[in-house]
Amino acid sequence: MNENICNEIPIIYITGFGPFGKHSENASQKVVEKLALLNIDSDLKVKLETDILDVAYKPVLEKIPNKWKTSKPKLVIHIGVSELAENIVLEKQSFNNDYCQPDINSCCVQSKQCLIGFPETLQTQLDLEGAIKDLENNEKFHLKCSVSTNPGRFLCGFVYYLSLSVSQKRSLFIHVPVLSIVHEDQDVAAYTLASTVGYLNKNIIQSS
To answer: Is residue 158's pLDDT more than 50?
Structure first.
């Protein structure tokens, strides 16, 4: 895909995930829904598009590459929930292989591979360390952020790898904690993510 962004109004595309397993309410869905209510569009002069994805390989495999092709987004951020996360986690990379866990439809990836013929690991080229430093300098955000190199080998890693395969310069995955941790801080989490989106948007403009 051509890295040139030709939209008159740049599109920022943000996704969360729906329910799965014991997560009858997915924290990523709650945060994305709150994020959609903020004034990112007018503040950043972009068009914000959001989706809640099913936790299923086939629909994601069909939807995400098509979204890149049709909308040509300036920035894509996927958000998911992690039981291991105690704060907001920016994922540095994702993996192509070993997707063995069944999805909500009891389906697996036939080859256990995201994309045949692609590298084992792809990394985002977005400035994650700079984004975290920018948040640390803003006193109104009390939710800590960190960088991880392991998004897991389920739908989180799967969707991230799909987007990284299209553009490492414009893709990111963010893990949020489970609702029991983030419940009272959903608004703060949404504002924190909005600030991160703003920083990365500026980062892309400066590097283009």
So the answer is: yes
Task: Record the tokens describing residue 13, joined without a space.
Answer: 């595309």
* Distance (Å) of CA 93 to CA 158, 162, 165, 174, 190: 11, 11, 11, 11, 22
The average confidence (pLDDT) of the chain is 91
* Distance between CA atoms of residues 97 and 188, nearest Å: 35
Name residues whose C-beta falls within 8 Å of residue 48's C-beta, 6 or more positions apart in sequence.
11, 12, 14, 36, 40, 41
Question: In this structure, are strands 121-123 and 93-95 parallel, antiparallel, or unpaired?
Answer: antiparallel
CA distance readout (Å), 149 to 77, 94, 193 = 16, 7, 19
Q: Which domains can be identified in the chain, with CATH numbers?
A: 11-207 (3.40.630.20)
- How far apart (Å, rounded) are the C-alpha atoms in residues 128 and 196? 9
Average pLDDT over residues 111-122: 96
Residue that has been written with the tokens 């893990």 in this structure: 175
Q: Which of 91, 100, 114, 142 is labelled catalytic?
A: 91
- pLDDT-derived band at 141, boundaries 50, 70, 90: low
pTM of the model: 0.92
Q: Is residue 108 annotated as a catalytic residue, yes or no?
A: no
**Cβ atoms within 10 Å, residue 49:** 16
Polymer length of the chain:
208
Q: Which of 78, 114, 145, 156 is catalytic?
A: 156
